[in-house]
Each structure stands twice: as structure tokens, then as C-alpha cells.
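Regression test case RT-17, inverse folding.

Input:
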């Protein structure tokens, strides 16, 4: 399997991205973080990229009012860094059609539930954990899936369960799930790198 050259797309804190960068630095994951793209110039993800010395850029509809230009420019940047795997680490925007088609089967997203439960438009962050608690589920989890043109509908690559405790609040459950996301994203990328898990579209 070719060396993984990861391009990150992130909108907020970037803690999943940080976990992956950390695993690359220790050698646990044989991959290279090459570029961080964020639609939010004040995102933690950009701060983390600066601290880690990873190239980054801010790309949003404010800078590129034409979505086609944004898509084409994003694709050019990803290609210029020879990215062969795009990792969405809390990216809140849709990917443009050119980038989607060029990287078909090579774009991963992480979602804090056992998809198809609690996915789709408007289901992100605390809303997901609120819904899990409201439904009285005693298990939730993490899903890693390929990205397609809709929210959270792409082919599921890997899932892991996380228990919901009786005393859980949205906050405690969210923390437990996020902690598991960090480990699970790295574990899954290691399997992709080794060929144990194959990406397909
Ligand atoms: C995570 O919960 C992830 O599942 C979702 O967005 C959140 C991103 O968190 N897609 P972070 O930016 O990685 O801290």
C-alpha cells in the first residue's frame, strides 16, 4: 500500500486531527499529514497546524463566493500536496463535486454515533448525544465512513461501540465518545495503511 499522505479538512477544534498527527509523530501510524484546510480561520485546527508546522490554508465561501472555484481550488491544493487520503475531522461543509470525484473512495469522515442512527443533516455534536440519551439507548458508538454527496450516508468502513451509562449527561457521554473517536480513527487508519481494511466506493 502506498504511503498515506493525509490532507485534513476541519472546521473546529481538530482534536481528532491532533490524535492522528500524534500517532504519525510517534510512528504508530505510518502516514504523513501534508495539509490542513479549514473553512474557519479561527479554528483550533488551524492553530494546531501552526503549532505542528503543517501547511494550512483557510478556504471558505467568504473568500471563494463561487462554489465551483472553491471546489477547483481545493482540488488543486490537495493535488499539489500529493494527498492520497482526505480525512474529514469535524468538517461541517460539503465537498465539491470535482474533489469528490477525483478522491472517490479516498475521503473518510468520522461520526459520533452508530450510523445510520443519528446521522444526517443537523445531526452533529451534542445533538447526536442528546438524541441517544432521549432514546434511552444503552449503547452508542463511533462510525468511520466514506464520504459521498450527502451527509453521513457513505459506505461504512468501521464502527465501534461505546456504552451509555444511566448517569450520563450529554457532556459525559460526548467526552467518552470523543475519547474513543481519537483511538478508533488511529486504529482504523493503521488498518488501512496495512491493507487489512480496504477502501472502496
Ligand atoms: C467529532 O465528534 C466528529 O465525530 C465530528 O465532529 C467532531 C469533531 O471534533 N464529525 P474535533 O474537531 O476532532 O475535536
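Golden output:
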Amino acid at each position: 500500500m502506498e504511503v498515506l499522505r493525509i490532507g485534513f479538512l476541519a472546521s473546529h477544534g481538530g482534536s481528532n486531527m491532533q490524535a492522528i498527527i500524534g500517532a504519525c509523530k510517534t510512528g504508530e501510524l505510518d502516514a504523513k499529514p501534508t495539509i490542513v484546510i479549514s473553512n474557519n480561520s479561527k479554528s483550533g485546527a488551524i492553530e494546531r497546524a501552526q503549532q505542528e508546522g503543517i501547511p494550512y490554508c483557510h478556504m471558505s465561501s467568504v473568500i471563494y463566493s463561487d462554489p465551483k472555484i472553491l471546489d477547483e481550488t481545493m482540488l488543486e491544493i490537495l493535488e499539489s500536496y500529493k494527498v492520497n487520503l482526505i480525512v474529514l475531522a469535524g468538517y461541517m461543509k460539503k465537498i465539491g463535486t470535482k474533489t469528490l470525484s477525483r478522491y472517490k473512495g479516498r475521503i473518510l469522515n468520522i461520526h459520533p454515533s452508530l450510523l445510520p442512527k443519528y446521522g444526517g443533516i443537523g445531526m452533529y455534536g451534542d445533538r447526536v448525544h442528546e438524541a441517544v440519551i432521549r432514546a434511552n439507548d444503552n449503547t452508542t458508538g463511533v462510525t468511520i465512513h466514506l464520504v459521498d454527496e450527502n451527509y453521513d450516508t457513505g459506505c461504512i468502513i468501521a464502527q465501534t461501540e461505546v456504552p451509555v451509562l444511566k448517569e450520563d449527561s450529554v457532556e459525559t457521554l460526548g467526552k467518552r465518545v470523543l475519547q474513543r473517536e481519537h483511538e478508533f480513527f488511529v486504529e482504523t487508519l493503521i488498518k488501512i495503511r496495512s491493507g487489512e481494511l480496504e477502501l472502496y466506493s
